[in-house]
Write a structure and sequence with these properties.
Number of strands: 9
Strand order of the largest sheet: 1-2-4-5-6-7-8-9
Structural class: alpha/beta
Distance between the termini: 22 Å
CATH class: Alpha Beta
CATH architecture: Alpha-Beta Barrel
Helix content: 25-40%
CATH superfamily: Aldolase class I
Bound molecules: D-xylitol-5-phosphate, zinc ion
Strand content: 15-25%
Radius of gyration: 16 Å
CATH topology: TIM Barrel
Number of domains: 1
């Protein structure tokens, strides 16, 4: 299982933490959580912070867009070290945006904890990654929602049935104990924020 590190809780000392993540062999990706005060109530990151992250990161970046107006972030399509751009299923008016991202990057679809996982099945053929939210999107430091395991099982069954190599990523509340279970469930990428800060501070 790969690790994608979220820096949300490290914003007050961003450059220092990016350097630490660059040196940390446990981390495979930097997870860039973008929030707009509309799709979720919080705001991250400022344009300057995004610039710092993409310029200083030595790891490939996986973008998580928790925003309504996805087109505002079109400039990310041309950033070299971004590997995945993930949009929320709940924010989509049409699926054109997925086709557009696909022309430039690997594309992901994210799903909130209370949205039926079955709703994204018909989109699986169009995306490279599914980001299963294990907390309500919008902030770090929340508790992992237990029925996420059931959602992962259902999703895995469906991708296998359709013979797809969809990357399954899980985001929110992942810590030293539940990370093992996610690995056993053959999750491909675990997104960690609070736990990563702990590891980097030791
Ligand atoms: C939540 C974000 C997560 C978050 C993860 O809305 O999408 O990526 O930063 O942080 P922890 O690991 O603290 O839940
Ligand atoms: Zn995220």
């Amino acid at each position: 299982m790969k690790i994608s590190g979220s820096l949300l809780s490290m914003r007050n000392d961003l450059e220092n933490y990016i350097n630490k993540v660059n040196e940390c062999s446990l981390v495979d990706y930097i997870h860039l959580d973008i929030m707009d005060t509309d799709f979720v109530s919080n705001y991250s990151y400022s344009y300057e912070e995004i610039k710092t992250i993409v310029e200083k990161s030595k790891k490939p970046i996986d973008v998580h867009l928790m925003v309504k107006d996805i087109s505002k972030y079109d400039y990310l399509l041309n950033v070299n070290n971004i590997e995945y751009i993930t949009v929320h299923f709940e924010a989509l008016d049409s699926f054109n945006i997925i086709d557009k991202i696909r022309e430039y990057k690997k594309v992901g679809i994210s799903i909130k904890p209370n949205t039926d996982i079955e709703k994204i099945y018909d989109l699986l053929v169009k995306v490279d990654l599914v980001l299963v939210m294990s907390v309500e999107p919008g902030k770090g430091g929340q508790q992992f929602i237990e029925n996420t395991y059931e959602r992962i099982n259902k999703l895995k069954k469906e991708t296998e049935k359709r013979k797809l190599n969809t990357v399954i990523s899980v985001d929110g509340g992942i810590n030293e104990s539940n990370i093992k279970l996610l690995d056993q469930k053959k999750v491909d990428i675990a997104v960690i924020g609070t736990y990563l800060k702990k590891v980097l501070s030791n």
